[in-house]
């Protein structure tokens, strides 16, 4: 069974631009969560989608948004990029409600210049 | 303030030694997961513990969930260089799949 895939793996943007990251969950998984990982703050939860609905949201500004499609693939978008948005963005998939095991993709390394 | 505190932050040991990583919280979690992450990659799930007092063994790795489901430990016996990595604990509450991560313990096993 294929794992979680994320594209692109690396991205370089400049301040003020926007970016869209993509995540394809494990086949059959309906929940997708996004996390930001930085050296200073560690891994922080951004949001979770289940059956195309946002089910949980972390403490990030509105510049961070996401969506999920009917095939469970998910995208996250960051608008008006800031230098502090440079991070490894990780996507995790889970079967669904009541199952806490989450499986992570390799991440997208975003660098904002 | 981290909801989950991991200690130590860094551990450097020789091959063959044992090590223990701790994950402590003042909050109760429905489940706790342990991950290992290597540079440039996503965390890889090692184990999930859900029952207070539960002990799970995975070859040389032993995981324990505290009776009150607030803390956990990971013990590695006879560590090998392949055990090198960032070890992360993460707790989940009852609703949803939001994971709260500890700050991580960086383990270096020298040959």
What can you see in these coordinates?
The complex is a heterodimer of chains A (113) and B (111). Chain A has 113 residues and is mainly β. Chain A is built from no helices and 11 strands. Chain A has strands at 5-7, 10-13, 19-24, 31-38, 42-50, 53-57, 64-68, 74-78, 87-94, 103-104, 108-112. In chain A, strand 5 (42-50) and strand 6 form a beta hairpin. The termini of chain A are far apart. The mean pLDDT of chain A is 94. Chain B has 111 residues and is mainly β. In chain B, 0% of the residues lie in helices and 55% in strands. Chain B is built from no helices and 11 strands. In chain B, the strands form 2 sheets. In chain B, strands 2, 4, 5, 9, 10 and 11 form a 6-stranded mixed β-sheet that branches. In chain B, strands 1-3-8-7-6 form a 5-stranded antiparallel β-sheet, with no helix packed on it. The radius of gyration of chain B is 13 Å and the shape is globular. The relative contact order of chain B is 0.33.
Give the number of DSSP strands of chain B: 11
Biggest sheet layout of chain A: 7 strands, mixed
Describe the largest sheet of chain B: 6 strands, mixed
- Could you list the spans of chain B in which at least 5 consecutive residues all have pLDDT below 50? none
Helical proportion of chain B, percent range: under 10%
Counting helices, strands and paired strands, the structural category of chain B is mainly beta
Mean pLDDT of chain B: 92
Number of helices of chain A: 0
Return residue spans of chain A where pLDDT drops below 50 for at least 5 consecutive residues. none
- Report mean pLDDT of chain A, rounded to a whole number: 94
Global outline of chain A? globular
Largest inter-chain interface? Answer: A-B, 26 and 25 residues
- What gap, in angstroms, lies between the N and C termini of chain B? 36 Å
Which structural class is indicated by helix and strand composition of chain A?
A: mainly beta
> Can you count the helices of chain B?
0
* Binned strand content of chain A: over 45%
């Amino acid at each position: 069974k294929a794992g979680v895939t994320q594209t692109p793996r690396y991205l370089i943007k400049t301040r003020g631009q926007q970016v869209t990251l993509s995540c394809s969950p494990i086949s059959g998984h309906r929940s997708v969560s996004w996390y930001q990982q930085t050296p200073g703050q560690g891994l922080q939860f951004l949001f979770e989608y289940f059956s195309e609905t946002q089910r949980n949201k972390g403490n990030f500004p509105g510049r961070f948004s996401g969506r999920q499609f009917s095939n469970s693939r998910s995208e996250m978008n960051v608008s008006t990029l800031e230098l502090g948005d440079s991070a490894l963005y990780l996507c995790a998939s889970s079967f669904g409600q009541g199952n806490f095991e989450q499986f992570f993709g390799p991440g997208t390394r975003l660098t904002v210049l | 303030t981290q909801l989950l505190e991991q200690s130590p932050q860094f551990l450097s040991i020789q091959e063959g030694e044992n090590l223990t990583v701790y994950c402590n919280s003042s909050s109760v979690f429905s489940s706790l997961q342990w991950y290992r992450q290597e540079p440039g990659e996503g965390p890889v799930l090692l184990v999930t513990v859900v029952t207070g007092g539960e002990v799970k063994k995975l070859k040389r790795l032993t995981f324990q969930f505290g009776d009150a489901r607030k803390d956990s430990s990971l013990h590695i016996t006879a560590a090998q260089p392949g055990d090198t990595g960032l070890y992360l604990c993460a707790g989940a509450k009852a609703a949803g799949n939001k994971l709260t991560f500890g700050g991580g313990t960086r383990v270096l096993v020298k040959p």
